[in-house]
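Onboarding guide, step 5: your first structure request.
Type a short instruction followed by the sequence, for example:

Predict the 3D structure of this protein.
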Amino acid sequence: MLTTLIKIHEDTAPVILAAGGITLIWGIVTLVLARGRASGQGGVWMPLRVFRILLSITAALGLVQAILGGLVWLQGARPGEGLHYVYGGIVLLAIPVAYVYSDQNQVRRDIIIMVIAVVAVVGAAVRALMTGQP
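The system replies with structure tokens like these:
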């Protein structure tokens, strides 16, 4: 059981990196497209809607990864370095914390905040991969 959980936990990390990379690229594209767009325009703008969906997927994958990591920890396995927990926490919390910080009214500012959060997720996921092996 433990080796299966560890394997799933390890195999989920590249998926988070891929989702984070796609979200980051789309966030930058959305930021560029939002340059001439006024904040008060009606409706939800399609590129922003896609960005929010990608953010949700990336955050959900971070949650799944944290749950898997918690199950591995409960089974008695430990990462190679203690910093692995810090990086895992960043992957788990960066997007939700950034969402709470953004006011969802200033489109450009909110996109910038969320893009920074995705950069943190991708960077922390890379570091978590480096520190997870015993």
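Each response can be followed by summary notes, for example: The chain has a mean pLDDT of 90.
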